[in-house]
Amino acid sequence: MPGAAAARRRPARLGALLRTARGERSMVDVAAAGLSAETLRKIETGRAPTPAFFTVAALAGALGL
């Protein structure tokens, strides 16, 4: 199923995009937006396949996206 394969790649894509947007900033600096560095690490590595909307919104705000 092509849709299922794309769905499995989404967490990795989101993580890669966040790592790129974070640039040289440390996880601790970005996590100061209200989430733990461990949560950010899980999202960046794809181990948090469906982060909550508010978590993604907080990250986007912290990264200026």
Beta-strand proportion: under 5%
Structural class: mainly alpha
Classify the helix fraction into a percent range: over 70%
The largest β sheet comes out as: none
- Could you name the ranges where pLDDT drops below 50 across 5 or more consecutive residues? none
Distance N to C terminus: 32 Å
Discrete helix count:
4
Question: How many β-strand runs?
Answer: 0
Overall average pLDDT: 82
Order of helices and strands: HHHH
Shape type: globular
Radius of gyration: 12 Å
Q: What do you see in this structure?
A:
The model has no long low-confidence stretch (mean pLDDT 82). The protein has helices at 2-22, 27-31, 37-45, 53-63. The chain is an all-alpha fold and 65 residues long. The protein contains four helices and no strands. α1 (2-22) crosses α3. Helix content is 71%, strand content 0%. The longest helix is centred in the N-terminal third of the chain and has 21 residues, at 2-22.
Can I get a quick summary?
With 65 residues, the protein is an all-alpha fold. The protein has helices spanning 2-22, 27-31, 37-45, 53-63.
Which helices and strands occur, and which strands form pairs?
Blueprint: H1 2-22, H2 27-31, H3 37-45, H4 53-63
Helix pairs in contact: 1-3
Quick tags:
mainly alpha, single chain, 65 residues
